[in-house]
Amino acid sequence: MLDGLIIGKASKSIAPTIYLNSYYMHFTHGMSLEEILEDIISAYKENNDVVLGDMRALLDFNYLNDKVAFKLIQREKNKELLKAVPYIEFLDLAVVFYLILDEHKGGQMTALIHNSHMESWGVGKEELYRLAEKNTPILLPPEIKTMKDVMRDFFRKNFEELWVDNMLDDLLEFDLENPALYVLSNRKYINGAGCILYDECLRNFAILQNTDIIILPSSVHETILVPDRDNLDYKELQSMVTEINLSEVPEEDILSNRIYKYSIHDCRISLIV
């Protein structure tokens, strides 16, 4: 359950929702109220020009076939939501469905699919999954990068004026590769944890690494992949995930405190107890 701020014009039928919960976390970590307000205003300005075409198109599922996608969310903490939306259980998670209606500089315009939508469209959960399984990898292609490359991209994007290649190499010289860490998400870094459901994605990576893969649920937007070289302490990894979720991840972005294993032999993902 989130608190959202909607700033809209009377002349327009849609407006962006700006969720406030993560701002409170930033505030408790030292972000000033003035900075938060500036960020909210900036988010509004980036998204207030969003235009959706004919709203009647949302009533005809024929116009929406290629817009259905899936994402992974917590199951336990979303019990109330799951009463109102179609979903498929996956381990301790839930696969839910949404429409990707538009993309723009500020992000995506999406709409979560509810049971009432299914009824009005006359489609079932199985049909939604079939379409989402086909569409999601096309709309949100997967991408696997080393943790070092992800951090390099972050510094390049956020500290461009200080960018010095050699200095950054020195900064990232600490031992990120033992064990080797890889980040799996989609190219938008939005709801990227769902990439573990893509056909062949984990299989190809496991074949490349020639071993089973441990999956750490970093957030709903990405997972961390660790090749299982028989030198991993599963309990330590699970404790690390739990600690990071508590201290670093906004509550609405937490995926799970459990960790998973992808088996190269039977091509299945299972919970590590």
Beta fraction of the residues?
15-25%
In DSSP terms (H or I, runs of 4 or more residues), the helix count works out at 9
User: N-to-C terminal Cα separation, in Å?
Assistant: 28 Å
Numbering strands along the chain, what is their spatial order in the largest sheet? 7-8-10-9-11-12
Description:
With 273 residues, this protein is α+β, with helices and mostly antiparallel strands. It has three domains: 51 residues; 87 residues, no CATH class; 131 residues, no CATH class. Helices cover 33% and strands 24% of the residues. It contains nine helices and twelve strands. The strands form three sheets. It has a six-stranded antiparallel beta sheet, with helices on both faces. Strands 3, 4, 5 and 6 form a four-stranded antiparallel beta sheet that branches. A two-stranded antiparallel sheet has the order 1-2. The radius of gyration is 20 Å and the shape is globular.
